[in-house]
Write a structure and sequence with these properties.
This protein has helices at 68-78, 94-97, 116-121, 145-148, 152-161, and strands at 9-12, 23-26, 35-36, 51-57, 79-90, 135-143, 166-175. By secondary structure, it is of the alpha/beta class. The protein has a 7-stranded mixed β-sheet with strand order 3-2-1-4-5-7-6. Helix 1 links the parallel strand 4 (51-57) and strand 5. The chain is globular and about 50 Å long.
Amino acid sequence: MQYLEHTGKLDLACGDNKREGFFGIDKFQTASTDAVVDLLKFPWPIADNSVDEVICCMFFEHIPKELRPKFMEELYRVMKVGATAQIITPLGERLFQDYTHAWPPVVPSSYVYFNKKWREENKLTHGAYDLKCDFLCTFGYALDPEVASWKADQQQFALKFHQNAATDLYVTCKKLGAE
């Protein structure tokens, strides 16, 4: 397989909004796309352990449920140990507004399945859960503008109990261990 020449920083499914300093990959050619690659076809033409940083904005929620683990396995394969991938997806009502979003919706707890220790503790190491990837995921949120003006304790209450308190989920997945 011939691998892409990239800078070590990838913007996956960049569309026409590639981040500065990143190598843009998308299924469609745009002014921002450096390489046309279908990210739902595996393996990607990217060398093992070659990527320092990934951004993937508003794409993961479009991936069919049966391909989400394969996408995360491929992400794990290409990232260096300690590298991070920031995955941004919509939250609240925005999860459902776009008819191209795949079911089930992506929520914060969706990411626990990509942590080896959690899978082992929950005896999910067989069948569809037999994954190699091991990510430590941390979460942040883009708050609704009204909620953003509230005190921190009120924001936390709103995030826990109100569906539209946050508009976007920011997940940082750090690659742990080695394959």
